[in-house]
Amino acid sequence: IFNFNAGPAVLPLDILKQAQAELLNYRDTGMSILEISHRSKPYEVIHQEAEADMKALLGLGDNYRVLFVQGGGSLQFAMVPMNYLPAGRIADYILTGSWSEKALQEAKLLGQTHVAATTAGEGYRRIPSLQEIKLSDKPAYVHITSNNTIYGTQWREFPNFGDIPLMADMSSDMLSRPFDAKKFALIYAGAQKNLGPAGVTIVIIRKDLLDECPPTIPTMLRYDTYAKNDSMYNTPPCFSVYIVHLVLQWLRKNGGLAAMEKHNQEKAAFIYRQIDQSGGFYRGHAEPDSRSLMNITFRLPNEELEGAFVKEAVQAGLGGLKGYRTVGGIRASVYNAMSKEGCLALAAFMDEFRKKNS
Ligand code: PLP
Question: I need a labelling partner for 252 at 20 to 30 A (CA). Which of 46, 108, 143, 175 fits?
């Protein structure tokens, strides 16, 4: 079945097969990947290569670290302000959907915040323009959400605020396209969409920030704890890191981020074309210049047809198309691992469904 679910984990079949074999015997250790010690050489290699591969894909040098943290994107909503929003400073948030609202909510618990831009009033149909962003005076950092999983919008071009640290939640479009990672002081992404199974969150952090973590917050909530201990202060989520490592190697082998972007653009175009050429039968939620290449959201003329669409799609081998409850309608999540064939099959189904029902 083609899996259009928004998560967790959409993975290439080859990786699932390799993991299946290594679940019984990891590289002739005679032990399962689930059993080998996180202090053993074979696991250390996985861990170190994953950090190196991530930096290579993003073109980052020695002034960045890659950390493996648990707690999901949701814990990062709190860890970012805990570490980088000191008393007397203000953190700026750009709101582009429910996940950025949640990030703001956590920061509000911890300090002063300012909404530098929001498109909430327009149902989060678009990303604000750079002109709309009004920063506070010398904010501690600016936080954005690169891809809005629920609304189906995505930043095309990232802002640059000079010396002000830019921090991003990239949970739902990490490694789906090339971008200038050096613009960011901190990036976080729960693995469970483009990178691997749930259980590990990737944090990419510029090293100078590691000196700013306040010693007063609990050890496990400080980024410097992870950096100083190579993310092994406590037992890391070994299996998730192992799969992330395989995904990173798969990405590098298949042409890196430029090839992935081309693949993702082609795939999404099949579906957006159906929306645009449907004469209003399918109505996209996102404005065209804010459309996401990862999550494609649209409505049909009524909820009854939307229900029929989801049901018949399953019968046609297309799963997970029901939209998120707050937006409704249909959501096709087409992460890196979704094939062109899957998107072509969905486009053909959309065409047929429209002809039958309009
Ligand atoms: N940020 C974004 C953009 C998301 O899409 C999600 C979940 O879908 C989250 C954060 C929350 O992540 P987690 O479930 O890992 O806490």
Answer: 143
And the tokens for 182?
């050096």
Residues 6+ apart with CB under 8 A from 211: 224
Residue 273: count other Cβ atoms within 10 Å of its Cβ: 13
End-of-domain residue from the set 253, 288, 312: 253
297 annotated among ligand-binding-site residues: no
Name the domain boundary from 225, 253, 281.
253
Active site residue 193: yes
Ligand 1 centroid from CA 73, angstroms? 5
**Residues 163 and 280 both lie in one domain:** no
Average of per-residue pLDDT values in the chain: 96
Residue 173: CATH number of its domain: 3.40.640.10
Q: Are 244 and 293 found together in one domain?
A: no
pTM (two decimals) = 0.97
Q: What is the pLDDT of residues 205-219, one digit of tens each?
A: 999 999 999 999 999
What is the atom index within ligand 1 of the atom nearest the CA of 74?
A: 16
Which residues in the chain belong to E strands, given as ranges? 2-3, 64-69, 90-95, 112-118, 142-145, 147-148, 153-154, 166-169, 186-190, 201-206, 283-284, 295-299, 318-319, 330-333
Query: Cα–Cα distance between 351 and 284 in angstroms, integer?
Result: 15
The reply, when asked if residue 323 is annotated as ligand binding, is no
Cα–Cα distance for residue pair 327/44, rounded to 1 Å: 43
